[in-house]
Design brief:
The complex is a heterodimer. By secondary structure, chain A is mostly helical. Chain A contains eight helices and no strands. Chain A has one domain (about 15-185). In chain A, helix 1 (about 15-40) packs across helix 2, helix 1 (about 15-40) packs across helix 3 (about 85-95) and helix 2 crosses helix 3 (about 85-95). Chain B is built from three helices and six strands, in the order H-E-E-H-E-E-H-E-E. The chains are: A mainly alpha, B alpha/beta. The interface of A and B includes residues 130, 182 and 184 of A.
């Protein structure tokens, strides 16, 4: 009789669903780079890839901040959701926004009404809006709503909560962030070389 | 709810509330409607076409794009048969400038806002904003940088 000295392996079961979300998030990150590169080229930036890279970093930072706030929001509702799980799902949900940015930068040749409907006022008025309120809601179009709905769906699954609860959290966060942008833009106007 | 979550939520709420309070206080301040009264400003370059409508651009000397707007505006109106008088209000300028170098002749004069009328009395903040005054100094419009003041918002 022989005895083995090799320790039995205890392989963790692979979570295919989570792996799929992460791969999709990676794809969405490349979509962001591509769409930002196109926007930088359309804006005749000297080094479009640097602009696109900076934009991607800003997008990732924004997603991380949004996920951090969402973690706190879910905890307040008695649900423990991991930061990474939320961050990847929020990035996946932002895929709709890449399309909106592409439309706003003029890559999709759509009629003005469709552009306005899908990507919001910023797409038809490419210059910086005058007031904080206009700036805060400049990107509000159908694709922004799609992003929120997708975000609520994915967060509801991650938190094992109802869609309505997730949508309430997403909407609350969106409204508060719009208020903060409105007020901050109004306060900052003219304080830098705009 | 854990103490850490409560603290994080309280911090977020406090930050948003502080921002909202600052915004509300700022918006509650009463400001004057801009009226062109040369006596409130220090003349740096005299006006040469004072009898016409005045377009005065709020320029900060460290702001390259509001100066570019002034030059673009000067080029744009130069071909008109009777162009308005284009001038400059130098804003957020602590000391009297020794040289201007604006790149456009200020036919409505260049005026130093030494008393911060533009910011503190008129409540304005947008560098490059163009104030369009009639010959009596009444405000006709105030338009942002990049806009031709009398062309219903058309961009340059």
């Amino acid at each position: 009789m022989t005895s083995s000295s090799i320790a039995p392996t205890s392989a963790r079961p692979v979570d295919l669903g989570e792996a799929r979300v992460r791969v999709t998030a990676l794809l969405v990150a490349t979509m962001w780079f591509d769409v930002l590169y196109g926007a930088a080229q359309a804006g005749r930036a000297h080094t479009p890839w640097i602009v696109a890279l900076a934009g991607l970093c800003a997008q990732l930072a924004f997603t991380a901040a949004e996920a951090a706030v969402a973690v706190v929001g879910w905890r307040a509702m008695g649900r423990n959701v991991r930061f990474v799980a939320l961050a990847t799902r929020l990035l996946v949900a932002s895929a709709a926004e890449t399309l909106a940015v592409g439309i706003a930068s003029g890559r999709a040749h759509l009629p003005r009404e469709w552009t306005l409907l899908l990507a919001g006022p910023r797409a038809v008025e490419p210059t910086r809006p005058l007031h904080g309120l206009a700036t805060a809601f400049a990107a509000t179009g159908v694709l922004a709503i799609v992003r929120m709905l997708a975000s609520a769906t994915l967060q509801a699954r991650a938190a094992r909560a109802s869609f309505a609860t997730a949508l309430a959290l997403v909407l609350a966060m969106w409204l508060v962030s719009r208020l903060a942008v409105w007020w901050a833009v109004d306060l900052l106007q003219g304080r830098s070389f705009q | 709810m854990s103490a850490r979550t409560s603290r994080a939520l309280a911090l977020l709420a406090a930050a948003v509330l502080a921002l909202g309070l600052a915004w509300w206080r700022d918006g509650a301040r009463p400001y004057e409607t801009p009226v062109w009264k040369p006596a409130r400003f220090v003349q740096l370059v005299p006006a040469t076409k004072a009898e016409r409508e005045r377009w005065l651009v709020a320029v900060n000397l460290r702001c390259p794009h509001c100066q570019a707007h002034l030059r673009a505006l000067a080029t744009r109106i130069a071909t008109r048969p009777r162009p308005p008088a284009l001038g400059v209000i130098l804003v957020d300028q602590g000391v009297r400038p020794t040289r201007l170098g604006l790149g456009a002749p200020p036919t409505a004069g260049a005026w130093w806002d030494s008393a911060q009328v533009w910011r503190n009395k008129w409540g304005r903040r947008m560098y490059g904003e163009t104030f369009r005054f009639d010959t009596r100094g009444r405000l006709l419009s105030a338009t942002p940088v990049g806009t031709v003041p009398d062309s219903s918002g058309s961009r340059m």
